[in-house]
């Protein structure tokens, strides 16, 4: 994936999934990826987390509709919402934004933080779009289901699950 950013071969590869509020898409991505990693016995090789570009839902569980859609597929979402922070650019090898606006917001934050915090100069290169790793889908972004009905959560969860399984 982003092997050029990994320097310690004993250090788990760390992936941070990021959406707007960290209660729908990024917790689902975290849950699905964690589930796949565990099923393959790679727990010790990865560190997986999620965050939001805003702090509005900080401290909250993932949206109940997303947790229900995931649970129907045997995936538990247990993450607690948190905003992205400057240290994420140091601690994570790959930061996956769910959509283009999330990516812009993450990069804006990096550009603000790099003047006050000691951040690696090229850390912005860790930020990628989630769908840039999709090989069998034309989507460029993971749609936000928050303001839609339950079908949006079903679609987001199913599509994300299928994307990850087909790539692995």
Report on this model:
- This is acid phosphatase.
- The protein has a single domain, classed as Rossmann fold.
- Strands 2-1-3-4 form a four-stranded parallel sheet.
- With 168 residues, it is α/β, with parallel strands linked by helices.
- It contains five helices and four strands; from the N terminus they run βαβααβαβα.
- The radius of gyration is 15 Å and the shape is globular.
Topology:
Elements: E1 13-19, H1 25-39, E2 46-52, H2 64-71, H3 88-91, E3 94-97, H4 100-113, E4 127-129, H5 150-167
Parallel strand pairs: 1-2, 1-3, 3-4
Helix pairs in contact: 1-5, 2-5
Short description:
Residues 13-168 form the Phosphotyrosine protein phosphatase I domain. The chain is of the alpha/beta class and 168 residues long.
Strand content: 5-15%
Helix- and strand-based class? Answer: alpha/beta
Alpha-carbon Rg, integer: 15 Å
Report, as a whole number of angstroms, the end-to-end distance: 12 Å
Q: How many structural units, i.e. domains? A: 1
Give me the CATH superfamily.
Answer: Response regulator
Classify the fold: give the CATH topology.
Rossmann fold
Domain Phosphotyrosine protein phosphatase I: 13-168
Family: Belongs to the low molecular weight phosphotyrosine protein phosphatase family.
Organism: Trifolium subterraneum (Subterranean clover)
GO molecular function, one term: acid phosphatase activity
């Amino acid at each position: 994936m982003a092997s050029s950013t990994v320097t310690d071969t004993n250090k788990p590869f760390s992936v941070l999934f990021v959406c707007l509020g960290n209660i729908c898409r990024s917790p689902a991505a975290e849950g699905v990826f964690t589930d796949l990693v565990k099923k393959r016995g790679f727990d010790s090789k990865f560190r997986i987390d999620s965050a939001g570009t805003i702090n509005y839902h900080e401290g909250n569980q993932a949206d109940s509709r997303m947790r229900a859609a995931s649970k129907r597929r045997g995936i538990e979402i247990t993450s607690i919402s948190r905003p992205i922070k400057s240290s994420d650019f140091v601690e994570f090898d790959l930061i996956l934004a769910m959509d283009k606006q999330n990516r812009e917001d993450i990069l804006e934050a990096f550009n603000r933080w790099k003047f006050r915090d000691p951040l690696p100069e090229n850390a912005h290169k860790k930020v990628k779009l989630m769908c840039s790793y999709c090989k069998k889908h034309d989507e460029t972004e993971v749609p936000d289901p928050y303001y839609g009905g339950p079908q949006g959560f079903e679609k987001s969860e199913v599509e994300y699950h299928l994307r990850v399984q087909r790539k692995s």
